[in-house]
Amino acid sequence: MPTDSCAALPAYRPAPSCLEAARIFCRTHFPLYSWPEAERSSRQSAVLVILYPDGSDLKMILLVRPKTLRRHPGQIGFPGGARDKGDKTPVDTALREASEEIGLDGKAIDVVGFLPREFAYGSDFFISPVLAYWPYEGGPLIKADPVEVEAVLAPSLDELGLSPELEWKRGQGLDLLYPVFPLGERRLWGVSARIALRLIRLAAGLEGRL
Predict the structure, then answer these.
(1) Domain count, the chain
(2) Cα separation, 36 vs 19, whole angstroms
(3) pLDDT in tens, 94-107
(4) Dihedrals φ, ψ of 22, to 5°?
(5) In a domain, 148, yes or no
(6) For position 5, what pLDDT does the model report?
(7) 3-state secondary structure of 44
(8) DSSP tag of 209
(9) What is the CATH number of the domain that holds 76?
(10) CA–CA gap between residue 21 and residue 44 (Å, rounded)
């Protein structure tokens, strides 16, 4: 994945057919481009689920959070965060956070649509996942903020696979069953793993299981 912000962009790659199908599906079933009116008093956040082409693979960007953070120390997740007062839509939040965290150029991003909203029981946030495509080979140019990002991971959808491990976790007095994706010595779990699994199933043509 490129890290030199001055490097020229590589060749343009149009979105693959599975992502074009996801675009139609998302905009038909999840057409929301504003914050839910009924939940304006709730804690709201958005994440950017960025896919990009790398040879024959379609990869996603995940961030490893430093262990020094107050929230989610050491965890793996998508770029994103809480809604600011000036954020009119979840897309505004997701792009702003991605710019702050990894220096992402939002002008080069193709927003595909929304995935189903999730609730993070550990932090009491509603999360709007914004699905986006970076149409250049090898991924976006990254300049990570060391305060918020310890490392950047880029697993392919095939690498994560359709059959994650399942584990019970405790949250707000509830026992919850979460998918877990092993990533070397690290693990993607929790609400980020739920979002990733929905995306993988959608890309694989399993929309009926969302």
Answers:
(1) 1
(2) 25
(3) 999 999 999 999 99
(4) -65, -35
(5) yes
(6) 44
(7) strand
(8) G
(9) 3.90.79.10
(10) 28
Within a domain: residue 146? yes
Closest to 128 measured CA to CA, from 195, 72, 203, 76? 195
Q: How far apart are CA 86 and CA 107, in angstroms?
A: 19
| Structural domain boundaries enclosing 95 | 17-159
pLDDT of residue 208: 43
Does any domain span residue 3? no
% of the chain residues with pLDDT over 90: 53
Query: Residue 178 forms beta bridges with which residues?
Result: 167
- Count of CB atoms within 10 A of residue 89's CB? 16
Q: Kindly give the pairing relationship between strand 44-54 and strand 125-133.
A: parallel
On whether the CB atoms of residues 40 and 9 are closer than 8 A, the answer is: no
- What's the pTM value of the predicted model, to 2 decimals? 0.88
Helix (H) / strand (E) containing 49: strand 44-54
Non-local (6+) Cβ contacts of 162 within 8 A are 200, 201, 204, 206
Label the pairing between strands 62-64 and 125-133. unpaired
Q: Specify if 172 maps to a domain.
A: no
Calpha distance 145→99 (Å, rounded): 10
CB-based contacts of 157-165 (< 8 A; 24+ apart in sequence): 157/51, 157/57, 157/58, 157/59, 157/60, 157/199, 157/200, 157/203, 158/57, 159/57, 160/188, 160/196, 160/200, 161/200, 162/200, 162/201, 162/204, 162/206, 164/193, 164/197
DSSP state of 98: H
- Give the whole-angstrom CA distance, residue 206 versus residue 51: 18
